[in-house]
């Protein structure tokens, strides 16, 4: 196998003649293919264009690439320029003719670009371009069928970016150092004529996609009107579209492979074991200096006038030329000043070996050089860093950590730079975030003094002490300092001198950053060792004039130039008809980022253009560098007599499996790489496996290149653990034997050794993304994205590709900056094409593709995108994209298998199984009513209205009710007699008008009127139905609910107040409900003081007392029938559980319209005789402290509230506890605060409430929960120990909390785990079971009883069970057996009611009053609300809790399913700019914690998720609103 690969390589690079012919062919092919790429109509015309026209075209091109001109303006001007030279075709507009592609061959090279559909390809990053790759991408896209993707719908306000930045073109100086972003494009990279043929088909396909998706793929085909709200013509239309989308997505899901399968046919390495590769010996020259400072001293003495460095200004003019004599004297001055003139408390500030920060701008190499050598002479350790421009620079905090860990206290800088730094009010430089406190010293100021004549710096031989520290930013964004010793620094200079053949006095042009890596090694260190003259080209000059470095090579006859491929492209774009430029002086053009596989196209294109200007092919010398190992390999200059350069076309599929496969048959997916030359002198190189033990690779295997050399870094400063992993690697053979005693350094370069011992690099560890076991390189993915045409939507060079870990695998994320003029539709189409291209070329799915506004991605110091900072923002939800496309369905292939339903075990087997296992049946009951002795006078009355009459006679003035208004003052009161009299008046008005048994709707605000009319109806023999009045500000939605309850309850009359009566007859109300459809409406405000002739006596206690209507969380309007006997039993049970008697006061902050709220308002006070302080929850909206102030004022010991009240207090009063304390609010009187709910206890909310109000004296044990439901409104109540019974402990133990495994819960199992375990879910006991109540846990399918700690449906048997549904609106048949059902095995006699809630019973170690062990009931959630997904049962609240936790701006969340898709609706609490950030975070968290793929993410405003009076979410109402397109969402994302 090895030989086969060897021969293929040889075929590519065996002989000089072959190489020469290769270059020639490439040049010819490029020239021939260029005009087919350009839009000039004919070659003849192109050849005859005058020079000034061609120059103007190039300038136009540059303007467009810089964002200085719009696309439209560019096309207009271009057409105008070309118009005189284009032969007119009859009847065709000249601007359209430019689009015609004419295949022709010509040797003329013009500075114009490839265009597609009026220059659609204007945003090409040529550094990542190769003709083969672009061609492959286009061919791959052409293969795709038209796929209809649902477009996200977006509110207009989100479409228009508000920030000024977003509308300005980005700082296109964004050329990336590592990720390869470019600012200007060379258009002249190689291409084949074939490419022109494929474009028509591709274009046609693109057009079809655009047309198809614009008409049929939008799920909310919303027309946005100027008001900025999205609306549809009709709900039906929206639902139709929604269903079409759902079908498309569901279809996509059906084809998603959910369980990942390893590929048995994946390629594996077959070559021989590689041998370590040794570089030539490091020669020893007699005149080499013993150290770098010694070299400087020598040249300063022997050649003081020789130029060392020429610095240029932004116009390209030489500002200053530093001679070796000047460099020595200035460095000496600085060294003396640093050591002797800086002191702190009479102690020298700096000692030899101390670290000093060098903060110099990129346009001042001279002062940097002086400072660097000044530190070396003073035996201080320079730490060069970037200039921080603002307090929030990307990565600045990490630099601060590095300075802190290095113990840096002094920073050297220039006067101009110091003045530009942000200042505090004191005038001092601010302390940047994460930075240590620094003293700033200006090196070109008056404080630098001349040393005495007798002072000489110590110039010693190179030692192993640290010479300098170079910073490096890791893939994760952390910054490390790499220490380089004096001996390694010298050895590296010697190795570079030998490898590059440097001679004394040579001139070198340096375009790189002189503070680190190759720019520092060549332009500051090796240059001084060899007395070379460095022409330093600042980055700011390159932005203004990309040709500047070429001009300086020509002007100074430079022998060597050090550049990056980016610089070659910029010059390509800008090269005008400058015939006077010559590059013939160059003997070496060092391409510092030659390790990037995509640099080959830069080299080829550059050579193609500048060969005519004297550039020889063989002088292009790519090199591979690593911060840790310094220069790893470099192609030698031609005079060295080395083998010719090599190139190979590798299979990307093979590379993804870590193997080398040359010239594969799969032509679409290939990577062309060039060698980076030979190993450095004196170094040994080997290639080891990336993961695990560093085993040597086989010859056809890609691994990490490791170097052992005396000229590399020592360690990461202060990080011994990481140093051991990277700097002290011992490669081993497969047998486990180490190959050498010398440690090797991992370079983070991925590559292999090819024929002729040439080193090839195919990527970097930093850009490596391992997805499903396959390796993908970020640079390759960027190249594919940039090869997609047309590209008028995103800025070139502003693309970041990285991976995030979600659900145990890496997921690829692509982020790009979008041009402000790109339309929604265009951007979305580009995104979908990019997905398809990456999928086809790399066989990998993209997890998320996001477009952000121009100029918003964090920048690296020398332009380009700061990848780790971008990734951090993505994960934190701070990226603020303007377009997002998530594709979890297509790329998440490692979901657990869907659960298969097993045949149910029979109920008898279940019981036997439990008995064998020693488990008892899950059954529990409250105290026995028959055995409870109490002096309950009310017990002798069968009917609640009789109790009121008895109290009116026995204790007429005893206060029963006290209602508070929002100011905290008493709005109304009622004693026993007053209530009785008011009830009599109502009864008198009804008797004669209505028949016995008629249903009467009571539409009142919370207050005494409601209670009085309730008893008035009972006195008159009518059945009261309490109804919440419509909201005056929201009649359109609340009035129909009132109408529905009145209709469904068959109410023949409505009793209400005058104000509400007026409201019902108002114009607004008539618009919502026809006024004629109401039954008789009576107002009870001014009833005559008539005495009721006689009160109605029901014939039997089983007769109907009242109807209790409520809308369940699933959106079903259900009315339950409460008989007189059930009403009395309910009141007695609550009285016994809460120890209620006439001398007690309780505070109630609940709505009085249904459930336990209705019972506590209207029934319990009358039965038990206690006084109820009534606080309507609505009043808390204007005074959040009303309820707690009332509790404190009346020293209430027992109080009831709902979760919505508790939430209002927590959010509204969380920061006001101190103010409340000053108002003497004291809650130490509260023994029990019970939250009334029909759901799982909300532990987080109750704990937060207790914690916040602990400062006001609230006992941490006071808050407890209750549980009731439609079939029985009070199953559990947990009062704290009170009164006489407290000593006996009759109230039972405190509620317990257990932790269950959420994954087991999905399979209907209960598995208890420790607190803090992964996937643990805390569940709090729902309160103590009421007296007379029995509970059993039954299997939902078999209806058999379950064992202790098994999950099943909670069934309840009790005297106060409701007697049945009066009607379940639209669901009558479904719930028929809810009230009288029997177990299929075991106790088959007891009549049970099914609650519709899942839960379990667990016997605890605590004992209750009777000495029995306490049975705790845990409610898990409503059965109707559970989501059946992938064969498992999910509870919405669990998913919602995860989602709310994922981002600070998510105020509330609700989930539901829609055609098998999970829909997540989140309320945004923040600016609309953050809306799209939530899409990825929501998708991530649901995948990670619940193994579910979110189908749709809907971002809405606060308050959109409907909540009922108990604070429970109405998810089904929300679902209906979503399907009818009534939510007015900010953003709807359809995950692919």
Give the arrangement of secondary structure elements:
Elements (H helix, E strand, L loop, with lengths): L1 H12 L2 H22 L5 H6 L2 H16 L4 H12 L11 H4 L33 H13 L9 E2 L1 H4 L4 H4 L26 H23 L6 E2 L5 E2 L3 H20 L22 E2 L13 H11 L4 E6 L5 E6 H17 L2 E2 L2 E2 L6 E5 L5 H13 L3 E5 L10 H10 L4 E4 L1 H6 L18 E4 L23 E8 L5 E7 H15 L6 E4 L6 H13 L3 E4 L2 H6 L3 H9 L3 E4 L1 H10 L13 E4 L7 H12 L9 E7 L3 E5 L12 E5 H5 L13 E5 L3 E2 L4 E5 L14 E6 L6 E2 L3 H8 L17 E9 L5 E6 L3 E4 L2 E4 H9 L7 E13 L2 E10 L5 H19 L3 E8 L13 H10 L6 E4 L1 H4 L15 H10 L6 E3 L18 H11 L4 E6 L5 E6 H15 L8 E5 L4 H12 L3 E5 L7 H14 L2 E6 L1 H7 L2 H6 L7 E4 L20 E8 L5 E7 H15 L6 E5 ...
Parallel strand pairs: 5-16, 9-10, 9-11, 11-12, 15-16, 15-17, 17-18, 18-19, 32-33, 36-45, 38-39, 38-40, 40-41, 44-45, 44-46, 46-47, 47-48, 61-62
Antiparallel strand pairs: 1-63, 2-3, 4-24, 5-6, 7-8, 13-14, 14-26, 19-20, 20-23, 21-22, 24-25, 25-27, 27-28, 29-30, 31-32, 33-34, 35-53, 36-37, 42-43, 43-55, 49-52, 50-51, 53-54, 54-56, 56-57, 58-59, 60-61, 62-63
């Amino acid at each position: 196998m090895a030989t086969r690969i060897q021969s293929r390589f040889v075929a590519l690079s065996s002989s000089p003649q072959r190489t020469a012919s290769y270059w020639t062919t490439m040049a010819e092919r490029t020239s021939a293919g260029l005009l087919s790429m350009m839009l000039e109509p004919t070659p003849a015309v192109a050849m005859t264009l005058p020079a000034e026209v061609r120059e103007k075209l190039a300038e136009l091109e540059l303007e467009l690439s810089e964002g200085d001109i719009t696309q439209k303006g560019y096309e207009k001007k271009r057409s105008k320029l070309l118009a005189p030279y284009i032969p007119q075709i009859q009847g065709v507009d000249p601007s359209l003719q430019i689009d015609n592609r004419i295949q022709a061959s010509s040797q003329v090279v013009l500075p114009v670009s490839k265009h597609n559909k009026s220059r659609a390809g204007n945003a090409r990053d040529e550094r990542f371009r190769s003709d083969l790759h672009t061609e492959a991408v286009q061919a791959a896209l052409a293969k795709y069928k038209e796929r209809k993707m649902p477009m996200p719908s977006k509110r207009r306000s989100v479409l228009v970016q508000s920030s000024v930045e977003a509308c300005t073109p980005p700082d296109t100086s964004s050329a990336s150092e590592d990720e390869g972003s470019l600012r200007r494009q060379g258009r002249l990279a190689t291409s084949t004529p074939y490419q022109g043929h494929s474009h028509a088909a591709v274009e046609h396909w693109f057009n079809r996609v655009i047309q198809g998706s614009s008409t049929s793929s939008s799920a909310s085909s919303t027309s946005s009107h100027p008001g900025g709200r999205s609306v549809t013509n009709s709900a039906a239309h929206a639902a139709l579209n929604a269903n079409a989308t759902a079908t498309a997505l569901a279809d996509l899901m059906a084809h998603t492979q959910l369980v990942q399968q390893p590929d048995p046919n994946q390629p594996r390495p077959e070559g021989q074991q590689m041998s370590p590769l040794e570089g030539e010996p490091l020669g020893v020259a007699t005149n080499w200096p013993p150290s770098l400072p010694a070299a400087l001293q020598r040249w300063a003495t022997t050649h003081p006038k020789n130029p060392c460095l020429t610095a240029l200004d932004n116009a390209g003019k030489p500002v200053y030329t530093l001679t070796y004599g000047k460099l020595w004297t200035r460095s000496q001055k600085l060294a003396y000043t640093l050591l002797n003139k800086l002191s702190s408390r009479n102690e020298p500030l700096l000692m030899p070996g101390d670290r000093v920060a060098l903060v110099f701008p990129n346009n001042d190499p001279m002062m940097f050089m002086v400072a660097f050598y000044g530190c070396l002479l003073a035996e201080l350790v320079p730490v060069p860093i970037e200039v921080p421009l603002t307090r929030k620079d990307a990565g600045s905090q990490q630099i601060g950590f590095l300075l802190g860990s290095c113990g840096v206290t002094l920073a050297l800088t220039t006067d101009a730079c110091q003045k530009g730094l942000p200042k505090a009010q004191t005038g001092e430089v601010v302390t940047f975030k994460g930075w240590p406190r620094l003293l700033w010293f200006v090196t070109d100021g008056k404080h630098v003094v001349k040393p005495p004549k007798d002072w000489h710096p110590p110039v010693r031989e190179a030692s192993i002490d640290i010479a300098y520290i170079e910073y490096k930013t890791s893939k994760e964004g952390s910054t490390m300092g790499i220490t380089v010793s004096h001996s390694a620094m010298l050895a590296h200079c010697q190795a570079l001198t030998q490898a590059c053949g440097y001679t004394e006095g040579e001139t070198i042009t340096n375009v790189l950053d002189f503070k680190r890596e190759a720019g520092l090694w060549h332009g500051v260190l090796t240059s001084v060792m060899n007395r070379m003259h460095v022409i330093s080209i600042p980055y700011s000059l390159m932005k203004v004039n990309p040709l500047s470095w070429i001009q300086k090579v020509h002007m100074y006859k430079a022998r060597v130039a050090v550049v990056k491929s980016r610089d070659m492209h910029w010059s390509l774009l800008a090269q005008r008809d400058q015939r006077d430029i010559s590059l013939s002086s160059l003997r070496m053009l060092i391409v510092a980022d030659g390790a990037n596989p995509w640099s080959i196209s830069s080299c080829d294109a550059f050579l193609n253009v500048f060969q005519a200007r004297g550039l020889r092919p063989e002088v292009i010398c790519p090199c591979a560098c690593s911060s840790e190992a310094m220069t790893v390999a470099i192609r030698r200059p031609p005079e060295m007599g080395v083998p010719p350069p090599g190139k190979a076309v590798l299979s990307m599929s093979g590379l993804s499996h870590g193997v080398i496969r040359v010239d594969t048959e799969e032509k679409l997916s290939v990577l062309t790489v060039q060698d980076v030359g030979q190993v450095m002198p004196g170094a040994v190189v080997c290639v080891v496996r990336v993961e695990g033990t560093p085993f040597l690779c086989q010859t056809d295997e890609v691994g990490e290149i490791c170097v052992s050399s005396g000229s590399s870094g020592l360690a990461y400063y202060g990080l011994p653990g990481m140093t051991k992993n990277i700097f002290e690697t011992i490669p081993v053979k497969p047998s486990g034997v180490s190959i050498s005693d010398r440690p090797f350094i991992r370079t983070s370069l991925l590559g292999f050794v090819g024929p002729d011992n040439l080193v090839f690099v195919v990527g970097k560890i930093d850009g490596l993304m391992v997805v499903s076991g396959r390796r993908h390189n970020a640079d390759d993915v960027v190249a594919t994205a940039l090869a997609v045409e047309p590209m008028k939507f995103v800025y070139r060079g502003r693309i970041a590709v990285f991976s995030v870990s979600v659900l145990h695998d890496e997921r690829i994320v692509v982020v790009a900056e979008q041009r402000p003029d790109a339309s929604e539709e265009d951007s979305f189409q580009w995104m979908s094409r990019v997905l398809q291209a990456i999928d086809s070329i790399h066989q990998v799915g993209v997890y998320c593709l996001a477009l952000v506004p121009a100029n918003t991605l964090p920048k690296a110091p020398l332009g380009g995108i700061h990848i780790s900072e971008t990734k951090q923002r993505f994960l934190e939800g701070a990226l603020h994209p303007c377009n997002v496309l998530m594709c979890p369905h297509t790329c998440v292939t490692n979901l657990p298998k869907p659960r298969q339903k097993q045949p149910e075990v029979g109920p008898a087997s279940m019981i036997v199984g439990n008995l064998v296992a020693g488990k008892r049946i899950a059954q529990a009951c409250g105290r026995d009513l028959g055995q409870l002795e109490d002096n309950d006078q009310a017990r002798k009355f069968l009917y609640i209205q009789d109790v009121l009459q008895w109290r009116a006679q026995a204790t007429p003035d005893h206060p029963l009710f006290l209602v508070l208004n929002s100011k905290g003052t008493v709005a109304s009161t009622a004693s026993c007699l007053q209530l009785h009299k008011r009830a009599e008046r109502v009864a008198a008005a009804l008797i004669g008008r209505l028949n016995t048994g008629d249903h009467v709707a009571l539409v009142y605000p919370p207050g005494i009127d409601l209670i009085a009319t309730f008893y008035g109806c009972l006195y008159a023999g009518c059945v009261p139905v309490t109804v919440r009045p419509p909201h005056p500000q929201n009649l359109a939605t609340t009035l129909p609910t009132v109408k529905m309850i009145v209709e469904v309850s068959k109410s023949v009359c409505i009793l209400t107040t005058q104000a509400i009566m007026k409201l019902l007859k108002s114009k607004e109300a008539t618009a919502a409900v026809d006024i004629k459809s109401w039954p008789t409406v009576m107002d009870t405000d001014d009833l005559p003081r008539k005495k009721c002739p006689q009160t109605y006596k029901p014939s039997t206690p089983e007769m109907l007392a009242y109807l209790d209507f409520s809308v369940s969380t699933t959106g079903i309007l259900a009315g339950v029938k409460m008989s007189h006997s059930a009403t009395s039993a309910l009141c007695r049970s609550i009285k016994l559980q809460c120890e209620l008697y006439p001398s007690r006061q309780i505070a109630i902050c609940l709505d009085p319209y249904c459930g336990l709220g209705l019972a506590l308002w209207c029934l319990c006070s009358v039965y038990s005789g206690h006084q109820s302080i009534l606080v309507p929850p609505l009043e808390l909206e204007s005074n959040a402290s009303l309820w707690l102030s009332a509790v404190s004022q009346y020293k209430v010991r027992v109080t009831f509230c709902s979760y919505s009240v508790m939430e209002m207090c927590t959010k509204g009063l969380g920061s006001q506890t101190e103010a409340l304390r000053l108002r003497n609010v004291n809650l130490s009187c509260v023994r029990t605060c019970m939250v009334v709910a029909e759901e799982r206890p909300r532990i987080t909310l109750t704990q937060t409430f207790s914690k916040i109000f602990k400062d006001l004296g609230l006992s941490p044990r006071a808050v407890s929960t209750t549980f009731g439901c439609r079939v029985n409104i009070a199953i559990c109540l947990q009062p704290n120990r009170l009164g006489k019974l407290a000593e006996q402990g009759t109230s039972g133990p405190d509620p317990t909390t257990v932790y269950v495994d959420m994954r087991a819960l999905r399979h209907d199992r209960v598995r208890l785990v420790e607190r803090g375990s992964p996937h643990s879910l805390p569940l709090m006991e729902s309160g103590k079971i009421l007296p007379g109540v029995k509970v059993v846990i039954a299997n939902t399918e078999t209806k058999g009883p379950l064992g202790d700690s098994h999950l099943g449906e909670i069934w309840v048997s009790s005297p106060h069970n409701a007697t049945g549904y009066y009607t379940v609106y639209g669901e009558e048949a479904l719930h028929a057996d809810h009230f009288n059902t029997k177990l299929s095995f075991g106790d088959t006699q007891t009549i049970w009611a099914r609650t519709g809630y899942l839960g379990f019973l667990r016997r605890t170690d605590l004992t209750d009053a009777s000495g029995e062990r306490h049975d705790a009931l845990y409610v898990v959630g409503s059965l109707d609300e559970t989501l059946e997904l992938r064969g498992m049962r999910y509870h919405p609240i669990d998913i919602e809790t995860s989602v709310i936790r994922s981002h600070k701006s998510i105020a509330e969340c609700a989930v539901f399913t829609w055609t098998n898709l999970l829909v997540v609706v989140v309320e945004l609490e923040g600016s609309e700019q953050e809306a799209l950030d939530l899409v990825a975070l929501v998708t991530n968290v649901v995948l990670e914690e619940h193994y579910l793929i979110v189908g749709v993410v809907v971002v809405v405003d606060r308050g959109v998720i409907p909540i009922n009076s108990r604070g429970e979410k109405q998810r089904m109402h929300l679902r209906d609103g979503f399907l009818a397109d009534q939510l007015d969402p900010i953003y709807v994302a359809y995950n692919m």
